[in-house]
């Protein structure tokens, strides 16, 4: 395994650890707030398999919800799942800008 690949794996795992901590520690969970509060970690841990903002957002939202499913009871997960859908629908312009900036920062 190459050093770059190993480094990216470590960074990605760090991102998942931060995500898990956020979901365990926050009472008022929010996908958008997670992205905002953990921007530096998201930038360094994003595996840029794509430069398409929507694919990156879909990937992180899926990780967010998968980890939430592992940590929360069914009712709280269902509530958060609906909240994430609504946040992503209402915040399309913000998310597009956010992920385009992540791609730019990673490509510097």
From TrEMBL:
This is 16249_t:CDS:1.
């Amino acid at each position: 395994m190459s050093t770059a690949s190993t480094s990216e794996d470590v960074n990605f795992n760090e991102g998942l650890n931060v995500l898990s901590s956020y979901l365990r520690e926050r009472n008022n969970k929010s996908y958008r707030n997670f992205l905002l509060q953990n921007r530096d970690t998201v930038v360094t841990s994003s595996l840029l398999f794509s430069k398409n903002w929507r694919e990156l957002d879909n990937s992180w939202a899926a990780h967010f919800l998968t980890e939430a499913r592992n940590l929360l009871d069914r009712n709280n997960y269902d509530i958060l799942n609906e909240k994430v859908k609504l946040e992503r629908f209402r915040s399309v312009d913000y998310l597009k800008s956010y992920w385009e900036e992540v791609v730019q920062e990673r490509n510097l």
